[in-house]
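ok so I'm stuck.
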Amino acid sequence: MFAEEKKRMDGDEPSSTSGRQIRVLVADDHPVVRTGLAAVLVQQADLELVAEAENGARAVALYREHQPDVCLMDLRMPVMDGVEAICAITTEFPEARILALTTYEGDADIRRALEAGAQGYLLKDMLLSDVVQAVRAVRRGLPSFPSAASSPSGSSRS
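replied:
not stuck anymore, here's the structure
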């Protein structure tokens, strides 16, 4: 991690509304993405990684078990895709706070994820400090979208 980015993340004010750590579930089928996100999350005093899932079905099961404050959900995974997992989670837990993870801005799956109940989305090429800020914002009940996007529809590249 770059020193400047670490400084930016460390300088952010923790924003857990209850004074306890923000519990996070990370769901992505790529081990390097899960590991990278986990490494960033555990460095933050106000964030706690509670579980990691490699597919949507496992994400739903782990959500039920841990009931995290925020879930980072990849949209394209095997067994059950992210949109289906978001639907399953938000049907059972209407107050769930979920951030969709995607590679492409304007991806049609983003719209489906937002319609299914996600509070925002993150592009996988975002700065790690932006991911941390997004988790904190969604925990507070605020939507989160990449700063370059003025709306969740973005420009279609799919």
